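Researcher: Please generate the 3D structure of the following complex. Treat every line as part of one assembly.
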Amino acid sequence: MKTNFYAHNLRLISTYYSKAMISALLLFTLQGICLGQISSYTDVGISGDSVVAYGAISDDYSHGQHINTTTVTLSSPGGGSVQSSGGDSASSFISITEDGYYSANTSHDSWCPYTQATISPSGGSSNSTQVCVDTCTPCLTSRNNQEILCWAALATCESGIFGAYNTAVQNCDNQNYCKTNHADFNQQQCDQCKETALQIYVAAQGACATVFGACWATRPDCFDGIKKKGNCDICFNN
Amino acid sequence: MTKSKWIVVVVLAGALITVGAFKRTSASNDQPTQGVQNQDPHQHHQQQVRKPLELPALLVDGATNPHAVPDLIAYEFLFNSIADGAGTTEPDRIRAKVFVQKTGLDEQKNQKLVATANSLREAVVPLKAQAKDLKDRHWPTPSQSVMAQLNNLQRQKETILKERFNSLMEQLNTSDREKLNKRVFEIKSKVKIYPSIPVEKFQKK
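Model: Done. Output below.
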């Protein structure tokens, strides 16, 4: 009776372990795709005084497990770096404080069920771009402002002297020697008056041009071979 | 040996094999598929350090062979990089502005491009959510039916992508089309395509 009881229990245990063994073997031979074909994209751009890096993933719905995290790391020439994470894409920004190559790397993490591993297709997904501290834009802004100031001064000067010239000509016309119906009318004297007004006007124009020229000459020179654009191109004065 | 002794031997052998098997797979079983979404990044890192994976060789490197990158993949990256619709954060809006300017199109055309990108995103979000849900529930051994559903979702996404891109191209003149195609080619040169990684790759280790 006792022997039968042990034999029965042993049979039960045997059945349990057999089932467990089969389950384990099934897990060992599990077929399937842990991570399907994925495409990774990394790009770098310039936004004013910052570099921006963008990393993204595209996975075919019918190919693979979805990506959990995308991380993009943006590194400056001096070794500094910033990192940002997102789902299918991420963007990182870094201020341009030094000239040189800024590079970006994108990595993607995907938890693979049944495998005890995170897949991180990365490395390779990087590119770099040469970036310079943008000394061109502020210079061109200053130069542009100075030009606006010079043109405004010239316009004010020109309108002022033209007004003065008109007043002078009118003054001449109001003189008796310019009135044809007056007894003191003198054509030569009248012309002389207007000629003088014109000469003063021309001289004043010269003064306006001189002031304008002096103003124009004080514009900052952006094409000095030192100032550069954010993409490291030489800065031109236009 | 008696019958009972044979049973004891078989049970002990089975126990040894089973314990070994469970030792290798226990961590996987502790991590249900549904937990994938809530993975802590630090936890990810630790797992990665614990079992680093040898990455497969690239299937396509756009830097050396941009023509091998399919158009649709480049379109998807183009649109995703410039979309600034609902839910976009301020940094992403700045990034979108920077990347749309890379097309070289004028302001008006860029606005059309961004509008297309935003409408595309809205159309693709539900497809993506369905695909994610299916994968979370059935990966890595999806049934034929699940694969058919995923294939269908993928085809829908591709159709939308093609339609939106072609519709956009129709609105552009020859010069602008060239600019956009140039940008698509540029994107291709920055794309890397990785092959599938089968589950068996891990089981052999």
